[in-house]
Protein: Propionyl-CoA synthetase
Amino acid sequence: MTTTNPTYQSEYQASVDSPVDFWADKACALPWFKAPSAKLTTDENGQQLWFADAKLNTCYMALDHHVKQGRGDQVAVIYDSPVTGQKAQYSYAQMQEWVAKFADVLQQQGVSKGDRVVIYMPMIVEAVVAMLATARLGAVHSVVFGGFAAAELAVRIDDAKPKALVTASCGIEINKVIEYKPMVDQAIEMAESPPQSVVILQRAECQAALVANRDIDWQQAMQTAEPTECVPVAGSDPLYILYTSGTTGKPKGVVRDNAGHAVALHYSMSAVYDMQPGDVFWAASDVGWVVGHSYIVYAPLLKGCTTVVYEGKPIKTPDAGAFWRVAEKYKVKALFAAPTAFRAIRKEDPNGELIQDYDLSQLKNIFMAGERLDPPTLEWTQNKTGKPVIDHWWQTETGWSIAANLTGIELLPVKAGSATRPVPGFDVQILDENGEQLGANEQGAIAIKLPLPPSCLNTIWGDHQRYQEGYLSQFPGYYCTGDGGYIDEDGYLFVMGRTDDVINVAGHRLSTGEMEEVLAAHDAVAECSVIGVPDGLKGQVPVGLAVLKNGAEIQQSELQSELVSMIRRDIGAVACLKQALIVPRLPKTRSGKILRKLLRQIAEAQPYTIPSTIDDPASVDELAGIMEENGLVVRE
Ligand code: COA
Ligand code: AMP
Structure:
């Protein structure tokens, strides 16, 4: 139960002692069509469901409810686009009308409750409109990040089997226009379950050619569209599918429910971010990632805040003062971005001189997530802005933070390198490989004791077995996060990195296994490995190590450029693979498994021991030597 003045400890303890009462209390704050009677249930597949029998519509909670409360004139969404020079603001009433009409456009294409809609769009307000319109119909959106190539889009289309796809003619990156339509056309050609129709927003920077009997012009369709009402869904019905990288080449479709998502996100806005209705929240991310779903779109609107949709970068659009300009102009109270963005700003403006040009008095806290917040970036941002900098740790799978410093409840002292303490609802424990709980400061696998709080995934789209095997089977009774780390004597959590083949490049989660599948398709490559090497700007960058087939004749520079192009073509520019080395052999076990962990340890200049199962011990030192010569051993 909520007390009048909760401390971190009282709030957290209540959430783990009595999760059902705790979340039932938080759920009371939301405008349900029918309030949930069952709080936490388990279905026939063993899926844990929060508020399954509630009736709601997430779009209603995010827009219509606020209009009904008389707050229709408040700004809901601010669009600021330094790459096009455009700025605009939309009230809750305007967003409601826009979304209600676009829902009709989708409805005209046959989209109804439960159907999937793939959204492949840049950072423009229409992306938010498309997401909310899908939710309004009780349909399920699946947003694909614009930096992914056609093949990645095709894989997601085939898995989600959408009825419609919504896109724009182009996205705009630093000094370049990226045409989206050719990638959409190519993806649809590759897909086995293509959508019946494609809705295209034509942008001034580029006009896309339309395919007859399939493509619909967004603007034209809107001219005749009529506003539609919100379709009630059950609490456990899916709101969206968001694909994320796992250890294999096939991305995992994380399924988010409607009710648990709304409850957790609404709670997080006050508890984690200290936001109240009317405050301005800015997550400088992209709607293609979970941060964008949760904190550009849903959470700020569920709470009645104003959200900023920023189409630009932290630097070069036009300079490293971009974040401070936006924060001043819109009186942003909470800014949330990835550490890599602040590393980029620091590189361009090391003394923080541009910060002095702006009035940041309204900015209360800066939040960072998406990758480990390295202590120098934490200290630089704190010192130069004079604001509290809050590291918080989370995953696509949870949809909100697992560990954080609860600025809306009690700000605890910050420890550099730590995401502070578990967020209410998450019983975080450190386990050894046998599932035994480890003591303070002992490093192991980070696991969360079940039940998970609301909003966390409870299945993988179309593959429940993958969910169980990937997350629940390693430590029975726990959700395995895939991250390693430790909890110190004060209960602070230190997340040290992934224990699997996932890497984090500029705050973007990517699979080295998937990149290996692409490189292995090259004619000259017998076997290969992709490892994440520490990078001063992007946190990690992928590097390919390739062993040539017998008799293959190819120069290092030629192979590298071909492999780099293959990754850009098959995964996308966002993968940032720029270096691929020919090596004589890779360290493997006798059973033929490449020792990826060992390669990572070499790259991070960590002490390593050569396992007894290794096939050829000399291969390790040989490879370490090659990596050192090529600048791939990075000492912090
Ligand atoms: N659509 C199309 N292409 C995209 C894209 C998009 N939405 N986003 C990135 N790309 C492309 C870029 O143009 C670049 O292509 P290039 O190799 O041809 O130049 C490539 O993908 C890599 O992009 P990026 O990782 O953004 O690197 P960058 O050097 O352009 O910018 C930073 C560096 C640090 C400024 C940038 O990575 C950044 O802002 N990071 C923050 C990330 C973030 O917010 N993550 C969300 C998690 S919270
Ligand atoms: P994503 O699913 O894209 O949000 O990526 C989740 C992964 O990013 C986590 O499993 C971590 O490895 C990493 N991550 C996110 N936030 C943090 C953080 N604050 N500290 C350390 N790692 C983080």
